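Milestone 3.1: sequence recovery, worked example.
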Protein backbone atom coordinates (compact mmCIF):
# COMPACT_ATOMS: atom_id res chain seq x y z
CA UNK A 1 0.00 0.00 0.00
CA UNK A 2 1.21 3.48 -0.82
CA UNK A 3 1.18 6.20 1.81
CA UNK A 4 -0.50 9.55 1.23
CA UNK A 5 2.95 11.18 1.00
CA UNK A 6 3.88 8.75 -1.75
CA UNK A 7 0.58 9.57 -3.45
CA UNK A 8 1.33 13.30 -3.39
CA UNK A 9 4.91 12.75 -4.59
CA UNK A 10 3.61 10.86 -7.62
CA UNK A 11 1.05 13.54 -8.29
CA UNK A 12 3.58 16.33 -8.40
CA UNK A 13 5.99 14.37 -10.58
CA UNK A 14 6.35 16.18 -13.90
CA UNK A 15 4.98 13.98 -16.65
CA UNK A 16 6.96 13.76 -19.87
CA UNK A 17 5.98 11.92 -22.96
CA UNK A 18 6.55 12.45 -26.68
CA UNK A 19 4.17 15.11 -28.00
CA UNK A 20 4.09 16.75 -24.57
CA UNK A 21 2.99 20.38 -24.69
CA UNK A 22 2.96 23.28 -22.30
CA UNK A 23 -0.09 25.34 -21.44
CA UNK A 24 -0.85 28.31 -19.24
CA UNK A 25 -2.11 26.11 -16.48
CA UNK A 26 -3.39 27.50 -13.22
CA UNK A 27 -1.13 25.88 -10.66
CA UNK A 28 -2.03 25.33 -7.05
CA UNK A 29 0.57 27.98 -6.18
CA UNK A 30 -1.02 30.84 -8.07
CA UNK A 31 -4.64 29.80 -8.02
CA UNK A 32 -6.79 31.74 -5.55
CA UNK A 33 -8.70 29.71 -2.95
CA UNK A 34 -6.47 26.70 -3.38
CA UNK A 35 -5.82 24.67 -0.26
CA UNK A 36 -6.24 21.17 1.05
CA UNK A 37 -9.52 21.67 2.86
CA UNK A 38 -12.38 19.40 2.01
CA UNK A 39 -15.79 20.97 2.33
CA UNK A 40 -18.80 18.70 2.53
CA UNK A 41 -20.82 19.46 -0.53
CA UNK A 42 -21.99 16.95 -3.06
CA UNK A 43 -21.33 17.82 -6.70
CA UNK A 44 -24.68 18.44 -8.32
CA UNK A 45 -25.39 20.56 -11.39
CA UNK A 46 -27.67 22.80 -9.33
CA UNK A 47 -25.40 23.16 -6.32
CA UNK A 48 -24.23 26.49 -4.88
CA UNK A 49 -22.24 28.95 -7.04
CA UNK A 50 -18.99 27.51 -8.28
CA UNK A 51 -16.07 27.53 -5.93
CA UNK A 52 -12.94 25.38 -6.25
CA UNK A 53 -13.13 24.26 -2.64
CA UNK A 54 -16.66 22.95 -3.10
CA UNK A 55 -15.41 20.43 -5.61
CA UNK A 56 -12.87 18.70 -3.39
CA UNK A 57 -15.63 16.46 -2.04
CA UNK A 58 -17.52 14.41 -4.56
CA UNK A 59 -20.06 11.67 -4.78
CA UNK A 60 -18.76 8.21 -5.51
CA UNK A 61 -21.59 6.22 -7.06
CA UNK A 62 -20.56 2.58 -7.25
CA UNK A 63 -24.01 1.25 -8.18
CA UNK A 64 -27.63 2.38 -8.14
CA UNK A 65 -27.88 1.53 -4.46
CA UNK A 66 -24.34 2.19 -3.25
CA UNK A 67 -22.95 5.73 -3.11
CA UNK A 68 -20.56 7.58 -0.82
CA UNK A 69 -19.40 11.12 -0.28
CA UNK A 70 -15.67 11.04 -0.77
CA UNK A 71 -12.50 13.08 -0.81
CA UNK A 72 -9.09 12.17 -2.18
CA UNK A 73 -8.12 11.01 1.32
CA UNK A 74 -10.57 8.10 1.00
CA UNK A 75 -8.57 6.68 -1.90
CA UNK A 76 -5.29 4.81 -1.51
CA UNK A 77 -2.97 4.53 -4.45
CA UNK A 78 -1.93 1.03 -5.49
CA UNK A 79 0.28 1.83 -8.49
CA UNK A 80 0.48 3.79 -11.72
CA UNK A 81 -1.33 2.35 -14.77
CA UNK A 82 -0.05 4.82 -17.33
CA UNK A 83 0.56 8.42 -18.33
CA UNK A 84 -1.15 10.34 -21.07
CA UNK A 85 -0.95 13.80 -22.55
CA UNK A 86 -3.29 15.23 -19.94
CA UNK A 87 -2.22 13.43 -16.78
CA UNK A 88 -1.72 10.14 -15.06
CA UNK A 89 -3.96 7.11 -14.44
CA UNK A 90 -3.51 5.18 -11.18
CA UNK A 91 -5.02 2.11 -9.64
CA UNK A 92 -6.64 3.11 -6.33
CA UNK A 93 -8.74 1.48 -3.68
CA UNK A 94 -11.69 3.17 -2.00
CA UNK A 95 -11.12 2.00 1.55
CA UNK A 96 -14.70 2.21 2.85
CA UNK A 97 -16.18 -0.01 0.15
CA UNK A 98 -13.04 -2.00 -0.73
CA UNK A 99 -13.59 -1.07 -4.39
CA UNK A 100 -10.58 -1.05 -6.67
CA UNK A 101 -10.81 1.59 -9.41
CA UNK A 102 -8.85 3.53 -11.99
CA UNK A 103 -8.37 7.21 -11.18
CA UNK A 104 -7.33 9.62 -13.89
CA UNK A 105 -5.73 12.81 -12.59
CA UNK A 106 -5.69 15.61 -15.08
CA UNK A 107 -3.46 18.67 -14.76
CA UNK A 108 -5.32 21.91 -14.29
CA UNK A 109 -5.01 23.09 -17.85
CA UNK A 110 -8.68 24.04 -17.94
CA UNK A 111 -10.32 27.04 -16.31
CA UNK A 112 -13.02 26.97 -13.67
CA UNK A 113 -15.85 27.14 -16.15
CA UNK A 114 -14.53 24.06 -17.97
CA UNK A 115 -13.98 22.21 -14.70
CA UNK A 116 -17.58 22.81 -13.73
CA UNK A 117 -18.75 21.73 -17.14
CA UNK A 118 -16.66 18.56 -16.88
CA UNK A 119 -18.19 17.66 -13.53
CA UNK A 120 -21.66 18.13 -15.04
CA UNK A 121 -20.80 15.86 -17.93
CA UNK A 122 -19.45 13.17 -15.65
CA UNK A 123 -22.55 13.34 -13.55
CA UNK A 124 -24.78 12.74 -16.55
CA UNK A 125 -22.60 9.97 -17.90
CA UNK A 126 -22.35 8.36 -14.46
CA UNK A 127 -26.12 8.14 -14.01
CA UNK A 128 -27.25 7.44 -17.51
CA UNK A 129 -24.86 4.85 -18.93
CA UNK A 130 -26.73 1.83 -20.22
CA UNK A 131 -24.29 0.95 -22.99
CA UNK A 132 -22.25 -2.19 -22.23
CA UNK A 133 -19.29 -0.78 -24.18
CA UNK A 134 -18.76 2.46 -22.28
CA UNK A 135 -16.56 2.55 -19.20
CA UNK A 136 -18.51 3.19 -16.00
CA UNK A 137 -17.71 6.42 -14.15
CA UNK A 138 -17.94 6.44 -10.37
CA UNK A 139 -17.40 10.13 -9.61
CA UNK A 140 -15.04 13.08 -9.86
CA UNK A 141 -13.53 15.76 -7.68
CA UNK A 142 -10.87 18.45 -7.77
CA UNK A 143 -7.77 18.40 -5.62
CA UNK A 144 -5.20 21.17 -5.67
CA UNK A 145 -6.22 22.10 -9.17
CA UNK A 146 -6.13 18.54 -10.53
CA UNK A 147 -9.33 16.81 -11.58
CA UNK A 148 -9.61 13.26 -10.28
CA UNK A 149 -11.89 11.07 -12.37
CA UNK A 150 -12.81 7.74 -10.79
CA UNK A 151 -13.90 4.94 -13.06
CA UNK A 152 -14.22 1.22 -13.46
CA UNK A 153 -10.85 -0.53 -13.55
CA UNK A 154 -10.28 -2.50 -16.73
CA UNK A 155 -7.48 -5.01 -17.31
CA UNK A 156 -5.64 -3.20 -20.09
CA UNK A 157 -6.04 -1.02 -23.17
CA UNK A 158 -6.26 -2.11 -26.78
CA UNK A 159 -2.95 -0.35 -27.26
CA UNK A 160 -1.02 -2.78 -25.04
CA UNK A 161 -3.22 -5.63 -26.10
CA UNK A 162 -2.43 -5.45 -29.82
CA UNK A 163 1.26 -4.65 -29.27
CA UNK A 164 1.56 -7.73 -27.08
CA UNK A 165 -0.15 -9.94 -29.68
CA UNK A 166 1.87 -8.71 -32.69
CA UNK A 167 5.21 -7.67 -31.21
CA UNK A 168 5.66 -10.10 -28.33
CA UNK A 169 3.65 -13.22 -29.25
CA UNK A 170 4.35 -12.71 -32.95
CA UNK A 171 0.71 -13.55 -33.71
CA UNK A 172 -2.17 -11.55 -35.15
CA UNK A 173 -5.64 -10.73 -33.85
CA UNK A 174 -8.16 -13.04 -35.57
CA UNK A 175 -10.68 -11.37 -37.84
CA UNK A 176 -13.67 -12.47 -35.74
CA UNK A 177 -12.13 -10.61 -32.78
CA UNK A 178 -11.36 -7.57 -34.96
CA UNK A 179 -15.02 -7.52 -35.94
CA UNK A 180 -16.10 -7.74 -32.30
CA UNK A 181 -13.75 -4.88 -31.30
CA UNK A 182 -15.10 -2.78 -34.19
CA UNK A 183 -18.70 -3.50 -33.29
CA UNK A 184 -18.21 -2.70 -29.60
CA UNK A 185 -16.40 0.57 -30.37
CA UNK A 186 -18.94 1.67 -32.96
CA UNK A 187 -21.83 0.87 -30.66
CA UNK A 188 -20.24 3.03 -27.95
CA UNK A 189 -19.50 5.91 -30.36
CA UNK A 190 -23.04 5.78 -31.68
CA UNK A 191 -24.42 5.73 -28.12
CA UNK A 192 -22.48 8.76 -26.88
CA UNK A 193 -23.51 10.69 -29.98
CA UNK A 194 -27.18 9.81 -29.99
CA UNK A 195 -27.70 9.79 -26.22
CA UNK A 196 -25.45 12.63 -25.02
CA UNK A 197 -24.61 14.47 -28.27
CA UNK A 198 -20.93 13.86 -27.59
CA UNK A 199 -18.42 13.40 -30.37
CA UNK A 200 -15.43 11.57 -29.00
CA UNK A 201 -12.57 13.37 -30.85
CA UNK A 202 -9.82 11.14 -29.51
CA UNK A 203 -10.54 7.66 -30.81
CA UNK A 204 -7.37 5.55 -30.59
CA UNK A 205 -6.27 2.20 -29.14
CA UNK A 206 -5.36 3.57 -25.70
CA UNK A 207 -8.91 4.91 -25.31
CA UNK A 208 -10.47 1.50 -25.90
CA UNK A 209 -10.16 -0.57 -22.74
CA UNK A 210 -10.17 -4.34 -22.52
CA UNK A 211 -11.41 -6.66 -19.78
CA UNK A 212 -11.54 -10.45 -19.75
CA UNK A 213 -15.04 -10.39 -21.20
CA UNK A 214 -15.45 -7.25 -23.29
CA UNK A 215 -14.21 -3.87 -24.53
CA UNK A 216 -15.20 -0.40 -23.37
CA UNK A 217 -14.64 3.09 -24.72
CA UNK A 218 -13.22 5.80 -22.43
CA UNK A 219 -12.02 9.43 -22.54
CA UNK A 220 -14.99 11.02 -24.27
CA UNK A 221 -16.69 14.23 -23.18
CA UNK A 222 -13.79 15.42 -21.15
CA UNK A 223 -11.60 14.95 -24.16
CA UNK A 224 -13.67 17.53 -26.04
CA UNK A 225 -13.13 20.09 -23.31
CA UNK A 226 -9.48 19.28 -23.01
CA UNK A 227 -8.74 19.15 -26.69
CA UNK A 228 -10.40 22.55 -27.12
CA UNK A 229 -8.34 23.97 -24.31
CA UNK A 230 -5.05 22.64 -25.62
CA UNK A 231 -5.69 23.13 -29.31
CA UNK A 232 -4.41 26.69 -29.12
CA UNK A 233 -1.03 25.61 -27.82
CA UNK A 234 -0.60 22.21 -29.35
CA UNK A 235 0.26 21.69 -32.97
CA UNK A 236 -2.40 19.66 -34.75
CA UNK A 237 0.44 17.84 -36.46
CA UNK A 238 1.28 16.23 -33.13
CA UNK A 239 -2.00 14.36 -33.00
CA UNK A 240 -1.48 11.25 -35.05
CA UNK A 241 -5.09 10.03 -35.28
CA UNK A 242 -6.56 13.27 -36.65
CA UNK A 243 -8.05 13.11 -40.16
CA UNK A 244 -6.83 15.19 -43.11
CA UNK A 245 -9.67 17.70 -42.75
CA UNK A 246 -8.58 18.49 -39.17
CA UNK A 247 -4.87 18.96 -39.80
CA UNK A 248 -4.85 20.68 -43.19
CA UNK A 249 -3.70 24.27 -42.52
CA UNK A 250 -5.58 25.49 -45.59
CA UNK A 251 -8.80 24.35 -43.93
CA UNK A 252 -7.86 25.55 -40.45
CA UNK A 253 -10.95 27.72 -40.09
CA UNK A 254 -13.21 24.70 -40.34
CA UNK A 255 -15.82 24.91 -37.60
CA UNK A 256 -17.48 22.08 -35.77
CA UNK A 257 -16.49 18.49 -35.57
CA UNK A 258 -18.28 15.84 -37.55
CA UNK A 259 -18.55 12.21 -36.42
CA UNK A 260 -16.80 11.32 -39.67
CA UNK A 261 -13.57 12.67 -38.19
CA UNK A 262 -13.93 9.99 -35.52
CA UNK A 263 -14.64 7.47 -38.28
CA UNK A 264 -11.19 8.26 -39.74
CA UNK A 265 -9.57 7.79 -36.30
CA UNK A 266 -11.44 4.49 -35.98
CA UNK A 267 -10.06 3.50 -39.40
CA UNK A 268 -6.47 4.25 -38.30
CA UNK A 269 -7.10 2.29 -35.08
CA UNK A 270 -8.46 -0.69 -37.03
CA UNK A 271 -5.57 -0.61 -39.48
CA UNK A 272 -3.20 -0.63 -36.52
CA UNK A 273 -4.83 -3.54 -34.70
CA UNK A 274 -5.24 -5.53 -37.94
CA UNK A 275 -1.57 -5.26 -38.93
CA UNK A 276 0.32 -4.42 -35.72
CA UNK A 277 1.56 -1.17 -37.30
CA UNK A 278 0.56 2.46 -37.32
CA UNK A 279 -0.27 3.01 -41.00
CA UNK A 280 2.39 5.59 -41.83
CA UNK A 281 6.16 5.59 -42.04
CA UNK A 282 7.86 7.35 -39.15
CA UNK A 283 7.46 11.10 -39.50
CA UNK A 284 10.61 13.21 -39.49
CA UNK A 285 8.70 16.45 -38.90
CA UNK A 286 5.20 17.83 -38.70
CA UNK A 287 5.51 18.79 -42.40
CA UNK A 288 6.34 15.19 -43.19
CA UNK A 289 3.21 14.10 -41.33
CA UNK A 290 1.04 16.64 -43.17
CA UNK A 291 2.52 15.58 -46.49
CA UNK A 292 1.96 11.88 -45.88
CA UNK A 293 -1.61 12.31 -44.68
CA UNK A 294 -2.85 15.10 -46.93
CA UNK A 295 -0.84 14.73 -50.11
CA UNK A 296 0.23 11.08 -49.91
CA UNK A 297 -1.67 8.22 -51.54
CA UNK A 298 -4.85 7.06 -49.82
CA UNK A 299 -4.31 4.44 -47.15
CA UNK A 300 -5.35 0.96 -48.06
CA UNK A 301 -5.43 -2.16 -45.94
CA UNK A 302 -4.33 -4.95 -48.26
CA UNK A 303 -3.53 -8.02 -46.14
CA UNK A 304 -4.42 -11.38 -47.77
CA UNK A 305 -5.47 -13.12 -44.57
CA UNK A 306 -8.31 -10.59 -44.06
CA UNK A 307 -11.64 -10.89 -45.85
CA UNK A 308 -12.74 -8.38 -48.49
CA UNK A 309 -15.52 -7.30 -46.13
CA UNK A 310 -13.01 -6.47 -43.43
CA UNK A 311 -10.68 -4.58 -45.79
CA UNK A 312 -13.56 -2.74 -47.38
CA UNK A 313 -14.83 -1.65 -43.95
CA UNK A 314 -11.47 -0.26 -42.86
CA UNK A 315 -10.70 1.36 -46.20
CA UNK A 316 -14.10 3.09 -46.26
CA UNK A 317 -13.29 4.65 -42.88
CA UNK A 318 -9.98 5.86 -44.32
CA UNK A 319 -11.44 7.80 -47.23
CA UNK A 320 -9.56 11.12 -47.35
CA UNK A 321 -12.71 12.95 -48.39
CA UNK A 322 -14.78 13.16 -45.23
CA UNK A 323 -17.99 13.58 -47.23
CA UNK A 324 -17.45 10.11 -48.67
CA UNK A 325 -16.91 8.54 -45.26
CA UNK A 326 -19.95 6.79 -43.78
CA UNK A 327 -21.46 7.69 -40.42
CA UNK A 328 -22.05 5.21 -37.58
CA UNK A 329 -25.47 3.88 -38.53
CA UNK A 330 -24.30 3.00 -42.02
CA UNK A 331 -21.15 1.35 -40.66
CA UNK A 332 -23.16 -0.68 -38.16
CA UNK A 333 -25.06 -2.18 -41.10
CA UNK A 334 -21.86 -3.19 -42.90
CA UNK A 335 -21.52 -6.87 -43.81
CA UNK A 336 -18.22 -7.09 -41.87
CA UNK A 337 -20.14 -6.69 -38.60
CA UNK A 338 -23.00 -9.04 -39.35
CA UNK A 339 -21.53 -11.96 -37.40
CA UNK A 340 -19.94 -9.76 -34.73
CA UNK A 341 -23.37 -8.66 -33.51
CA UNK A 342 -24.00 -12.21 -32.35
CA UNK A 343 -20.39 -13.10 -31.63
CA UNK A 344 -20.49 -12.98 -27.85
CA UNK A 345 -23.14 -15.70 -28.05
CA UNK A 346 -21.64 -17.83 -30.80
CA UNK A 347 -17.89 -17.59 -30.41
CA UNK A 348 -15.56 -17.42 -27.51
CA UNK A 349 -14.57 -13.75 -27.35
CA UNK A 350 -13.92 -13.87 -23.62
CA UNK A 351 -11.78 -16.98 -24.03
CA UNK A 352 -9.50 -15.08 -26.41
CA UNK A 353 -9.44 -11.85 -24.39
CA UNK A 354 -8.69 -13.76 -21.19
CA UNK A 355 -5.93 -15.75 -22.81
CA UNK A 356 -4.15 -12.61 -24.03
CA UNK A 357 -4.65 -10.79 -20.73
CA UNK A 358 -3.12 -13.76 -18.86
CA UNK A 359 -0.01 -13.36 -21.01
CA UNK A 360 0.05 -9.57 -20.69
CA UNK A 361 -0.11 -9.76 -16.91
CA UNK A 362 3.13 -11.75 -16.87
CA UNK A 363 4.81 -9.59 -19.51
CA UNK A 364 7.60 -7.29 -18.39
CA UNK A 365 8.70 -6.03 -21.84
CA UNK A 366 8.10 -2.39 -22.69
CA UNK A 367 6.37 -1.49 -25.92
CA UNK A 368 7.10 1.45 -28.20
CA UNK A 369 4.67 4.32 -28.36
CA UNK A 370 4.21 3.69 -32.10
CA UNK A 371 5.23 0.81 -34.33
CA UNK A 372 5.42 2.76 -37.57
CA UNK A 373 5.00 1.06 -40.88
CA UNK A 374 8.42 -0.22 -42.00
CA UNK A 375 9.86 2.17 -44.63
CA UNK A 376 9.83 -0.45 -47.42
CA UNK A 377 6.05 -0.84 -47.29
CA UNK A 378 3.28 1.36 -48.79
N1 LIG B 1 -10.30 2.67 -16.47
C1 LIG B 1 -9.11 2.24 -16.85
N2 LIG B 1 -8.73 0.98 -16.59
C2 LIG B 1 -7.50 0.52 -17.00
N3 LIG B 1 -6.61 1.27 -17.69
C3 LIG B 1 -6.94 2.54 -17.98
C4 LIG B 1 -8.19 3.09 -17.58
N4 LIG B 1 -8.24 4.38 -18.03
C5 LIG B 1 -7.08 4.61 -18.68
N5 LIG B 1 -6.29 3.52 -18.64
C6 LIG B 1 -4.96 3.40 -19.26
O1 LIG B 1 -4.08 4.32 -18.62
C7 LIG B 1 -3.11 4.79 -19.57
C8 LIG B 1 -3.07 6.31 -19.54
O2 LIG B 1 -4.31 6.80 -20.00
P1 LIG B 1 -4.50 8.29 -20.53
O3 LIG B 1 -5.89 8.43 -21.02
O4 LIG B 1 -4.01 9.22 -19.48
O5 LIG B 1 -3.47 8.40 -21.74
P2 LIG B 1 -3.57 7.95 -23.24
O6 LIG B 1 -4.93 7.47 -23.57
O7 LIG B 1 -2.44 7.00 -23.49
O8 LIG B 1 -3.25 9.27 -24.02
P3 LIG B 1 -4.11 10.63 -24.09
O9 LIG B 1 -3.80 11.38 -22.87
O10 LIG B 1 -3.62 11.30 -25.31
O11 LIG B 1 -5.57 10.22 -24.16
C9 LIG B 1 -3.54 4.24 -20.94
O12 LIG B 1 -2.77 3.09 -21.23
C10 LIG B 1 -4.96 3.87 -20.71
O13 LIG B 1 -5.40 2.87 -21.60
MG1 LIG C 1 -6.74 8.03 -22.81
Amino acid sequence: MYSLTKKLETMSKPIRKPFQFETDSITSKNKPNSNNEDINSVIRPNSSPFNHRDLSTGELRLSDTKSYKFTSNDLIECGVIGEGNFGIVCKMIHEKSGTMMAVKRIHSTVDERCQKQMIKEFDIVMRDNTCPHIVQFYGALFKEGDCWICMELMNTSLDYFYKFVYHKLDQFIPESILAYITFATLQALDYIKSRWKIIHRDVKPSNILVSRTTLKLCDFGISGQLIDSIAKTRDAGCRPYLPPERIDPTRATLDGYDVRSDVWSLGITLYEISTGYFPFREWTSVFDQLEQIIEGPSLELKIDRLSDNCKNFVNTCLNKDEKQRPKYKQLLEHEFLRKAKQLHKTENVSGYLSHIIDGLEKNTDKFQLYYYLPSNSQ
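The chain has twelve helices and ten strands. The radius of gyration is 21 Å.
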